[in-house]
Design a protein that fits this description.
Helix content is 57%, strand content 12%. By secondary structure, it is α/β, with parallel strands linked by helices.
Length: 190
């Protein structure tokens, strides 16, 4: 179904990469959603944001879920959503920054897709998340300190399952998507 825009022939991700999907992981503010949308467009594949799917199924936004159910309630919803999305084929999926916290999410992402870790500097991340509005894990905290804590806890988990890593600092969304396509092309040719 896909790859026509990038490679000129209609193969599925499984045909090209040996895995069903492309997953973008990384901390908040790295551009996973923007890059994912662009990548989906270039590949002619559906783009899905796991956080948006959680909100759609819950009928409320993520801050409300955190307020009512706490982080543990949100993480349960996230596990269920990731499991459901990983059963699909030929999608580009941007996960929430904390999706890698659950071992079952890491296993599913690693087994069923090509995992791309988008990383950025702390300065760039702070600029992109602004004051952290709409981001429950940043509410009422020192932004730099909290982002650093999250980075230290999660970076090893991102690296554990990443097929490769791309730094998004000072790069246009289109350039990052092109870099991913170049790598996918190399993988499919080998």
């Amino acid at each position: 179904m896909r790859f026509a825009a990038a490679f000129g022939r209609p193969y599925s991700f499984r045909d090209m990469l040996g895995k069903r999907n492309i997953y973008l992981i990384g901390p908040m503010g790295t551009g996973k959603t923007a890059v994912g949308k662009q990548l989906g467009k270039l590949l002619g594949s559906p783009f899905i944001d796991s956080d948006a799917e959680i909100e759609k199924h819950a009928g409320v936004d993520i801050p409300y879920i955190f307020e009512r159910e706490g982080e543990s309630g949100f993480r349960q919803r996230e596990r269920e959503t990731i499991a459901e999305l990983c059963r699909q084929d030929d999608i580009v999926l941007a996960t929430g920054g904390g999706a890698v916290l659950a071992p079952e999410n890491r296993r599913l992402l690693h087994e069923t897709g090509v995992v791309v870790f988008l990383q950025t500097s702390l300065a760039q991340q702070m600029q992109r998340v602004g004051k952290g509005r709409g981001r429950p894990l940043l509410k009422g905290t020192d932004l730099a300190q909290r982002l650093t804590e999250l980075r230290e806890a999660r970076d090893p988990l991102y690296r554990e399952i990443a097929d490769y890593t791309i730094t998004t600092d000072n790069r246009r969304v289109s350039r990052v998507a092109e870099m991913i396509l170049t790598d996918l092309g190399r993988r499919s040719a080998s």
